[in-house]
Every structure is written in structure tokens, then in C-alpha cells.
């Protein structure tokens, strides 16, 4: 097998490792591309292509994450990971861990870990790498890596998100939610939301976003049931789509360009959290990005006309 073929075979794994460490599709793709450049330029044949490539992409991702942390400290408003519509890596034996680890809630929890803890946790707990492999990837002893995993596991367990175990039930609830949203059915929305539901948006200062988190079923259902029909009047549409392995949707303007994504956290038969990603810098991989400010201004004009 040629180097190109080996790399292409392992590319889904490399991207999936990088995305979980970085929480960014664009940065993960850059890390994978740089990994290929280093692999193709290596004069000697590595003993194991998988070990060489996973080590390289892990180290690159750690370096990128360290610099990204500084930028995120000054980020305008809440920071969410870039939405992922499909994880390219599949492993039936670990499908539950893969889905859980890529959820918005889990990725936000990973943000609490140091870059090294995050990388070691991802390699061990998500992809089941052995400690010799992990030690080689991060340049630490096996004993140090075991300690890093213990600390990371403790932090993750303390705030571990739990999702609806029954996938069919979760999807049915999401379908009812999006039907009610489409119809502007405030009462229908309210009965699907947890009493303490939160709705938060990430615009990064580059798109309209919620001034602060909306809390409570009454308030969230009223805003959703009022605003979306107004947006629909401007030919804004949405398509339900799994986002970060959770129920979600992609919202588009009248030209089919992406306005924002929405994800739903479901637990105990109710929607616990709604997260919107509208920062255009985080949506380019989903499709052509809409001018959200133009839609916002048009919505304002429509409201004033209706008064």
C-alpha cells in the first residue's frame, strides 16, 4: 500500500482525533493536512503509519489548542465548537463513545481540561489507544499519561452530560419540536422543554446573537414560537439534521445560504438545552454563509411595518 493510500485510509481517524481535541472543523482539517505534509516528507518509512500519523496529528492539535485558548479568552460572548454534521470515523464497537464525545455538551466539558489532559483523554477514552501509544504521541511517560487520564476522567465525570439513551425516542421528540417550531406552536414547544431549559447563541460578535442566555420553558417557547414564524415570513427555512451526533437543524436564508445551526440536548423526555451557532467563521464548512445581519435588519423592518 502506498503512503497516499495509507494516509487516506487513516484520514477519518486523524480528523476525528483532531476535532475532539480542537473543537474546530477548520483547525482539525488544517492539522490533518499538515500531518500529511510531514508524512510525505519523511525520508524513512515509519514502522507503523497509524502510530506516526496519530502521533503527528495529536502533537499538532495540542500546539494549536494552546494558542487557541488565548483567543477564546477574549471571544465575544459564549464560545461553542464548530458544528459537525457528520463524523467521518466509524467504529461499531465504540459508536456510543464516539457519539457522546462529539456532542456540544461533551466538547464544552473538554474545554475545562488542559491541552495535554484533553489529548490523552481523547486518545484513551474515545479511541481506546494503549498507554504506550499515548505516551509516544504526547511525549510523556506511561505513568504520567495514566495520571493525566485519571485527572481528566474525574473532571469529565463531575459534569458529564447524559443524553436520552433511546435514540428513537430522542429523534421522535426532536421531530415534534421542529414541527411545533415550524407552526409557531408556543404551547406545543413548551410541553417539550424542561422547566429549566436554556437557549444560548454563539455569534462571536460577527452575527446577531442572544444578548444573554434565555432560561425557562415559558420564555424559551415564547421566543421560539414568535420569532421563527416572523423569520419564515422572510423565507427563512430549516432542515432537521443531526449536528454533533445530537438532534439539530441547519437554518438557511431565502437563497439557501446558512444562517445558523441548532442543536438539542435531550434528557428524561425533555429538551434540556438549545445551542445556536451563528458565527460565520464557524459555518463555512456547512455551506455558503448567509448575511445574518441583513436578515436581522429585514426582520426589524417587518416588525415595524406590522405594528
Automatic annotation (TrEMBL):
Lineage: superkingdom: Bacteria
RNA polymerase sigma factor 70 region 4 type domain: residues covered: 105-156
Domain RNA polymerase sigma-70 region: 7-69
Gene3D superfamilies found in the cross-reference section: 1.10.1740.10, 3.10.450.50, Winged helix-like DNA-binding domain superfamily/Winged helix DNA-binding domain
UniProt keyword list: Sigma factor, Transcription, Transcription regulation
One Pfam family linked to the record: Sigma70_r4_2
PANTHER family linked: ECF RNA POLYMERASE SIGMA FACTOR SIGJ, SIGMA 19 FACTOR
Protein family per UniProt: Belongs to the sigma-70 factor family. ECF subfamily.
Subunit structure: Interacts transiently with the RNA polymerase catalytic core formed by RpoA, RpoB, RpoC and RpoZ (2 alpha, 1 beta, 1 beta' and 1 omega subunit) to form the RNA polymerase holoenzyme that can initiate transcription.
Stated name of the protein: RNA polymerase sigma-70 factor
Amino acid at each position: 500500500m502506498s503512503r497516499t493510500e495509507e494516509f487516506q485510509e487513516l484520514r477519518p481517524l486523524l480528523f476525528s482525533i483532531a476535532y475532539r481535541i480542537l473543537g474546530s472543523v477548520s483547525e482539525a482539517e488544517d492539522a490533518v493536512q499538515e500531518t500529511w505534509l510531514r508524512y510525505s516528507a519523511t525520508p524513512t518509512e515509519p514502522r507503523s503509519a497509524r502510530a506516526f500519523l496519530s502521533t503527528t496529528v495529536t502533537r499538532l492539535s495540542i500546539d494549536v489548542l494552546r494558542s487557541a485558548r488565548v483567543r477564546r479568552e477574549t471571544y465575544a460572548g459564549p464560545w461553542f465548537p464548530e458544528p459537525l454534521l457528520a463524523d467521518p470515523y466509524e467504529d461499531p464497537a465504540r459508536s456510543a463513545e464516539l457519539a457522546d464525545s462529539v456532542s456540544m455538551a461533551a466538547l464544552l466539558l473538554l474545554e475545562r481540561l488542559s491541552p495535554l489532559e484533553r489529548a490523552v483523554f481523547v486518545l484513551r477514552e474515545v479511541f481506546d489507544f494503549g498507554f504506550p501509544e499515548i505516551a509516544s504521541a504526547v511525549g510523556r511517560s506511561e505513568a504520567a499519561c495514566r495520571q493525566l487520564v485519571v485527572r481528566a476522567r474525574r473532571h469529565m465525570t463531575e459534569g458529564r452530560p447524559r443524553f436520552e439513551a433511546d435514540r428513537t425516542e430522542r429523534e421522535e421528540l426532536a421531530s415534534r419540536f421542529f414541527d411545533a417550531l415550524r407552526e409557531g406552536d408556543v404551547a406545543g414547544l413548551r410541553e417539550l422543554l424542561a422547566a429549566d431549559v436554556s437557549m444560548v447563541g454563539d455569534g462571536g460578535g460577527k452575527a446577531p446573537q442572544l444578548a444573554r442566555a434565555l432560561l425557562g420553558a415559558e420564555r424559551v417557547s415564547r421566543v421560539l414560537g414568535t420569532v421563527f414564524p416572523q423569520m419564515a415570513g422572510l423565507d427563512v427555512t430549516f432542515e432537521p439534521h443531526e449536528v454533533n451526533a445530537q438532534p439539530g437543524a441547519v437554518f438557511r436564508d431565502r437563497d439557501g445560504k446558512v444562517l445558523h445551526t441548532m442543536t438539542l440536548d435531550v434528557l428524561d423526555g425533555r429538551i434540556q438545552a438549545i445551542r445556536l451557532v451563528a458565527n460565520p467563521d464557524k459555518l463555512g464548512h456547512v455551506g455558503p454563509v448567509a448575511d445574518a445581519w441583513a436578515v436581522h435588519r429585514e426582520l426589524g423592518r417587518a416588525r415595524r411595518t406590522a405594528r
